[in-house]
Amino acid sequence: MACHLRSASTPSSPRSNNTQVEQQLQSLSSTVSSPSATIDTMCHGLRRLADIYGGIEKMICTPSSQASLCHTLQRVAVEAELGRSLVVLDLCNAMQETFMELKMTVQELLLVLKRGEETSAQVKAYVRLAKKAQKQFKKISKKTASDKNDSRMVMLMAEAREITISLLESTSSILSKQIEVPKCSLVSKTLHKSKAVCEEEQLRALERSIGDLESGVELLYRRLIQNRVSLLNALSL
């Protein structure tokens, strides 16, 4: 993939882009770690993260950054970060598979609910899938020791990777609680609807949210691939 440089007559300076990406990462980190974070928060976070990776790619493609990344000392750090990024790509693939399975389980729940049958088996299957996704994060260390000589570019990539893992981990945690936490009583009382109708509405909303998460991870995956290609191009100069 060819790098797309800015064509405007007054392009932003690399330092300005650097600062902007750093601020976006700090803001997103606070959002993801908030106790009040919801599925919608994570959907929006995935889109923001994809934009951040887009900003990092623009930085990678500037002549000054490419010259710095090709320096002998930085080259080692960049190659190490390229290796670590494979873990995130694998996570994105795994999460996409989980989202697909969760959507299918929710669809099964809707069918069982419409027939008026017992839904405990489907609920257990949903929770089991969500908690299975959580377990994979225990094998990953989000804390990465960065060399003090690493360039700010490499450190930004490391920060973006760590936030990506945290966001995906938080997403799996939130999803595991969606069916466990009862929400129908208040809604039913307020809107005078039956519990079954309320549950169906919540399940359809959950299905849509999982679809949004799936799209967000797909977009993020594409941006991660673009970053890797740009880095490899820079190292080949």
Structural commentary:
There is one protein chain. With 237 residues, the protein is mainly α. Helix content is 76%, strand content 0%. It is elongated. The chain has one domain. It contains 8 helices and no strands. The model is unreliable at 1-11 and 181-192 (pLDDT under 50). It has helices at 14-32, 39-60, 63-69, 72-114, 120-135, 152-176, 184-191, 195-235. InterPro entries: BPS1_pln. Residues 1-35 are annotated as: Disordered. Residues 7-18 have a biased composition (Polar residues). Residues 19-35 have a biased composition (Low complexity).
Describe the structure concisely for a colleague.
By secondary structure, the protein is mostly helical. It is built from eight helices and no strands. Residues 1-11 and 181-192 have low confidence and may be disordered.
